[in-house]
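Known limitations

Structure tokens in this collection are predictions and should be treated as such. Users comparing against experimental data should check residue numbering before alignment. To illustrate the layout, the record for Ubiquinol oxidase is reproduced below. The input appears on top and the generated tokens appear beneath it.
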Amino acid sequence: PSGRRGAPPEHPRARRMRPPNTVRTAQRLASVLLLSVCVAFTPHQPAASRSIGSSRNLHSHKCARATRHQCAQYIRMVASEKVESSPAAADVDTKSMGEAYLELKYTELASIKPSSSWALAWANFKRQLQSGLEQAAEKVGIQKNDELKPPYCLGLVLSNEAVSEAERKREEAGGRIDAHPVSRTLYDIGCLFLDNLFEGRPIQRFWFLETVARIPYFSYTTMLHLYESFGWWRAPELRKVHNAEEWNELHHLLILEALGGNLAWSDRFLAYHAAIVYYWFLLAVYLCSPRIAYQFMELLESHAVDTYGTFVQMNRARLKALPPPTIAVNYYTSSDLYLFDDFQMRTPGTRRPPCDSLLDVFQNICEDEGEHVKTMRACQEYAVQGTPVVSPHKEQATEPTPMTASEKRKLWQSWAAAVNEANCVLEDGDDL
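Generated tokens:
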């Protein structure tokens, strides 16, 4: 600038010779793109050479350390059903292998501080751009796919025909949902989309399903806030139940992210945009008919029960040999399970599922989805018959027994004596 000491004065035409803001912005964007391409095409350190930190054994106070390569070898041996015959399996403490799932840097979004929408959007754009370029490089063979990462090394399978058969049996047994024709049509289209897009990729399918499945609870809560803000209707207990349901679905999502369900940029792109469309769609449906909005969610949750149940049956032995992710252990065995009890249609504290293997994790998720189905049915009855949906904790709460007049008198006397003793000041010569 011309105001600095010793700097020559700026020529009047120099400012007009500078490129406009749009050109400078384009130049910066091109620099970012070039840098992202360089980063994407740079060979990454193989996962086998990275090690994981020690984690506390679930049944003792000893810490066991295992490299990610050992964990990946163990998982691949499980996939090939050679665990019993391989001596390498003896070197891996399966209780410490939960950390082997947690290598996904993309899930570490909680470390980002709250900021403006454009700052967060720009940071997300850069992350997604790099991930998209990496996926494109893997597709054309420029960059090799890391086969030691979950879910590639898990070897888990799911049959679309088996899921359809499970759904057919449920409906023949009396579990068919008498849904609105539009809801049924949209549901059938969604199932067809899932079957074709995620053929042979069950973990990615589950992650997509959980990303979309938690959106209705956001929509329901938004509408309840709207009704309450206008003074039309107030249902704090219903909002509380929906918050607990969303909290449960969130942990399903985190578990599947730990298993690598959101590795592909294309899966994330489709899931996030489908979730946004689904959110606004349910807002419009709830505005016209809360019953149909809850009914559509019952369809989705029932499909989740069929899908998870079929998945467990097809992979039982393999899942039983694999350890649970740390996030699953923290959620299902936590000392604070208030929200876990809050969305279920049963007495609080009566359901404490185990979490000793990946089989337990998926069985727990399947049972959770079954509880969501029951809650959605109760919400539909609320909309039709007016039977309130309240927290199970409130249903089990007992009112205190009314005090008699003599008990109140004794309580007042003890309180008065305590006050007099606290305010009593003895003078010289006084005796108690």
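For this record: Residues 76 and 153 are 6 Å apart (CA to CA). The chain has two domains: 25-154, 156-392. Please report discrepancies through the issue tracker.
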